[in-house]
Amino acid sequence: MILYFTGTGNSAFIAKRIAEKTGDTAVDVFPMIRENDYGKLSSSRPFVVVCPTYGWQIPHVLGNWLKKTRLSGSRKLYFVMTCGDGIGNAGGYAKRFCEKKGMEYMGCGKVVMPENYVAMFPVPDRTEAERIIGKAIPQADQIAEHIRKENPLPKAEISLLDRFLSTVVNPVFYKLFVHAGKFRTTERCTGCGACVRLCPLSNIRLEDGSPVWGSDCTHCMACICRCPEQAIEYGKASLGKPRYQCPGAGEGNRGPQKNI
C-alpha cells in the first residue's frame, strides 16, 4: 500500500507512478489526517510512504499521524521523499521511526520535483516544471523497481551538512517559519471555500465569506497554490510568483486544477 501526503501534487504524482509500476494501490492520507482517522490499515505488500520534504525531514503532521495509525500485515516500510533540492538526513529519522514502530526500514528514496514552496523560494513556470518532472520519472521508476522486488533502497551518502539540516535547522525552521500569520486574501477572493476544503488540518474557516487562518498550519501550500482565483498571498514573499500545481497529478489533489 502506497500512502501519500501531498499539498500541490508532486508526491501524488510520484506515488501514482510507483503504484502503476508496482501494481499497488495509492492512498491519499490528507482526508484521514483532517478527520483524525487513525484506524488500522492493512497490506500484504510493503507499505510505502511518499511525501514532500519539510525542513529536511518528513512533515511533522504526517509523522504524528503515522505514529498513531496501526499498520498491519507487511512489516516492511519504504519512504520516498519529493524535494526541490535535497532531503538532508531525513532517512535517518525515517529509520528511527521504523524502529520505534516495529517496522522493517527499507530505505528512503529521493525524487527531485519542481519547487512549490512559494512562501520562501522561486517557483518554476510550466515549461521548466515539466522539464524537471521529465527528469524525475526515471528516478521514480528506479525506486519502484526496488519496491516491486521488495529490495532495500540504495543507501545515500549523508554529509555533516545533511545531519545539521535535519537535526538543527528543522526545529528552527518550524518555530520561525511554519505558521499561518502571513496568509491573506486579495480582492480576487470569491469566498468559494476551496482553501477550507483543501487544508489537511482544518485550519481555515470562512467568516463573512472570507477565509480566516487559525494557528495550526503545516505549510503544505495547498491553499495558496490551489486557489482557483489565485487570490491568496503569503506576505510579500509570494507576490508575482506562479502558483504551482503538478501537471497530471489528478484528482488525488482534492482541488480544482489551474495552469501554473
Automatic annotation (TrEMBL):
Tell me which Pfam families the record gives: Fer4_9 (PF13187), Flavodoxin_1 (PF00258)
InterPro entries linked: 4Fe4S_Fe-S-bd, 4Fe4S_Fe_S_CS, EFR1-like, Flavodoxin/NO_synth, Flavoprotein-like_sf
> Under what name is this protein listed?
4Fe-4S binding protein
Keyword Metal-binding in the entry? The reply is yes
In terms of PROSITE patterns, this protein maps to:
4FE4S_FER_1, 4FE4S_FER_2
Highest taxon of source: Bacteria
Q: Which SUPFAM superfamilies match?
A: 4Fe-4S ferredoxins, Flavoproteins
* Taxon lineage: Bacteria, Bacillati, Bacillota, Clostridia, Lachnospirales
4Fe-4S ferredoxin-type domain: from which residue to which, for each copy?
180-209, 215-237
